[in-house]
Amino acid sequence: MNSIEEKPIKQASFLDALIPITVLVCLLGAAVYLFGDNSSSGPNQIALLFATFTAALIGLKNGYTWKKLEQAMIEGITLSLGAIIILLMVGALIGTWLLSGTVPTLIYYGLQIINPSWFYAASCLICGIVAMSIGSSWTTAATIGVALLGVATGLGLEQVVTAGAVISGAYFGDKLSPLSETTNLAPAVAGADLFEHIHHMLWTTVPSFIIALIIFIFMGFNAGGSAEAGRIDEIVNLLEQNFNIGFEMLVPLVVLLFLAIRKMPAFPAISIGAVLGAIWAMLFQSDLINSQIDASQGQAIGYFKLVWTTFFDGFSIDTGDEKMDSLLSGGGMAGMLTTTWLIMTALMFGAIMEKTGLLDMFVKSILKIAKSTGSLITATIATCIGTNAVAADQYIAIVVPGRMFKDEYEKRGLKPVNLSRTLEDGGTITSPLIPWNTCGAYMQSVLLINPFDYAMYAFFNLINPFLAVVYAYFGIKILRITPKHLKQEANAE
Predict the structure, then answer these.
(1) pLDDT by residue (tens digit) across 218-228?
(2) pLDDT digits over 35-77, tens only?
(3) Of 485, 482, 478, which Cα lies nearest the Cα of 417?
């Protein structure tokens, strides 16, 4: 056993790196083919586990001990714990906000205020403003995004397009917010100043967002005739019959946004929002609660039991309208367990790939062909997207390529903000488009739409990386410094 532990570690080959990737792609493709939209409810997790075992076998072949590989997997899962506890509490928040009337009130007023012709563009813009204010695409999607999907249903508009608009706006705002974790992480990895990084991102981000808005406006005008006034009145009446509607129901949302703007960490802020939703439900939705509780043990206990159940199992309602029942039911921590499983298996695979040097092998192979500035930036974006798919986490997709390309950017006389912007253009905004990525899994659990379905409508997320590549090849807003080797020669003299 000791001889196995002391076996020298062999450098991974390109074929070594290719094998687990091929296994993963084939199994994920088979999962989608065999199980369709249900592929993220178990099949994708099994695909990731088998790909993890394949990568582990290659690691063992190259001299790594099982203990080291196991420790890498444990550390990978540990990285996800912060996201998991936020995810579970978001489930509770959605449940209590449905029961409290917060989400129904947003849908109610949204149906009466937003014109169908402008709806997609308005959804994108609203989510962008909110996400920029609070620095969180996750919170924006779980609150404003969920309500906008309800409004889309009432207006007779496409939910997948609405989800694309929500994702586009949420990630635009998140990307430019100094409160965002990824916006702080990218310049830290690249060695750039935060506000210089944000300013430099404007050149690729704002034009991409404007183009996305124009597309959403065009789609909205073409889809405007699909809304039915009678159906809107029917939904409004159902909401009024089942919930107490009023501006006071929006207090939990206002409090949550205030806490986020004040930079309170996500978990306590969302927890407060969920608890406040439960309190609001007991204060303002007594008729609804009375219609759902089991009063055999007393009304007070019935109230308490229903609210408790909403935290872990979500909220459900029977309005007599199947589509509205689906829209107004959901949430709960239990509903997030499948997503938690997906995140854990995805990060196990990413951790093994990084530990065994298989990710690094891909980057070294890419650098051999990245001769120009345009090809280097293109290679960085491609690596970020690939890392999002392989390591399944946007933080890893920023940190790993950032570490690997940093010296190369400096050697070629490229200012650090070029790298930090590219990490966001390729890493941050492509993460929600991949179903097994932590962001994609989260968005699916909140919006209840598969990322493969909304990805083609997340125009901002698709346009931004492409525009960044165009800028790179044409030399637009590519800032330069004295190359590293020239600095060393000058210092030597």
Answers:
(1) 998 887 545 45
(2) 876 777 788 889 889 999 999 999 999 989 999 999 988 887 8
(3) 478
243 with 104: CB under 8 angstroms? yes
- Give the CB-side neighbour count of residue 341, counting CA atoms within 13 A: 16
Distances in Å between the alpha carbon of 267 and those of 135, 223, 293, 393, 432?
14, 38, 29, 19, 20
User: Could you give the C-alpha distances from 477 to 178, 185, 434, 464, in angstroms and in order?
Assistant: 21, 22, 29, 15
Identity at 274, one-letter amino acid code:
A
Nearest alpha carbon to residue 404 among 436, 362, 437: 362
Q: Are the beta carbons of 4 and 65 closer than 8 angstroms?
A: yes
In angstroms, the CA 67 to CA 78 distance is 16
DSSP-derived secondary structure letter, 95:
H
How far is CA 202 from its chain centroid?
Answer: 21
* Integer Cα distance of 355 and 76 in angstroms: 10
Distance CA(206)–CA(362), nearest Å, equals 31
Task: Indicate the length of the chain as a whole number.
Answer: 493
pTM of the model: 0.76
Nearest to 281 by CA among 302, 298, 260: 302
Say if CB 471 and CB 477 are below 8 A apart. yes
CA–CA separation, 251 and 353 (whole Å): 45
Here the tokens at position 37 are 């939209």
CB-based contact 157:149 (threshold 8 Å)? no
> Minimal CA–CA distance to 182: which of 430, 348, 468?
430
CB 52 within 8 A of CB 348: yes
Asked whether 23 and 320 are in contact (CB, 8 A), the reply is no
Distance CA 88, CA 274 (A): 11
Answer whether 149's CB lies under 8 Å from 159's CB. yes
Domain ranges of the chain: 82-336
Tokens standing for residue 271: 């927890």
